[in-house]
Amino acid sequence: MFCVSWEPLGITGGTPVSLPGAGPMAGSSVVARMSYIGLRITRSTETVTARTATRAEADVLDLAPGAPVVAIERTYYAGERPLETADLVVPGERFRLAYEIPAEPAES
Description:
alpha+beta; four-stranded antiparallel beta sheet; 34% strand
């Protein structure tokens, strides 16, 4: 998998989680890292598309030029405020994507 993500410096800058691979939450999930600095993720969105790999993606993922990939754009939110957006690229012939979507009962 190839992943590039962005977080607003206005949110994580100067905090112990400003670098996802360093500090007390190194390697932790976005949910855990944001919780550590007092932000609760309330939802996430994903847009999933199938396409062919770019030349750069094919090189990084060791794919043949034009190989199929699944591209995922994922954003985590606290209310309406985006906290992190990531672009993920997964080789189409190597992985199967599976999701669990919890269903909350309607409030009465």
